[in-house]
Amino acid sequence: MVTFKPSDFNRKIDLGTFESKQNPNNGSIKKTFIKQFSLWYAPKTRTLNQQYQIQGTALDNTKVIVVRHNTAVEGIKVAQIDGVMYDIVQYSPDESNAIVTYDFVTLKRRA
Predict the structure, then answer these.
(1) Per-residue pLDDT, 103
(2) How many C-alpha atoms does 44 have within 13 Å on its Cβ side?
(3) Which 3 state secondary structure label does DSSP give 61?
């Protein structure tokens, strides 16, 4: 089991959805990010071997973050970190009976 110190969770991620909004000036429709909640996260570094194994797969150019177990993350598909938008590619919740559990979230930067 991986253990983390509370001080490892020193970065903030905004989780939410996209909503289509109409521009009142010209009537065009634009998708905007609607934040539903924020969480503190710890970045998870992959080993070189893990990086080589995922090259050429759908998980290439992704990053993994760790959050405290939170069931609300399961339905979320979009995240924002420091103004950069990410799609949630994979969500791996820890459903063990441990007192403190962590979820791994794989993010891919939106093009």
Answers:
(1) 94
(2) 19
(3) coil
pTM, two decimals, is: 0.84
Residues 6+ apart with CB under 8 A from 20: 29, 30, 31, 32
Count of C-beta atoms within a 10 Å radius of residue 111: 5
53 φ, ψ (degrees, to nearest 5) = -70, -30
Alpha-carbon torsion 44, 107, 103, 70, what sign? positive
How much is the pLDDT for 1?
A: 59
Ranges of H-type helices in 1-111: 48-54
As a whole-number percent, the residues of the chain with pLDDT over 90 amount to 61
- In 1-102, which ranges are continuous DSSP H helix? 48-54
Q: How far apart are CA 78 and CA 80, in angstroms?
A: 7
Q: Tell me: the pLDDT tens digits for 64-103?
A: 999 999 999 998 999 999 999 999 999 999 888 888 899 9
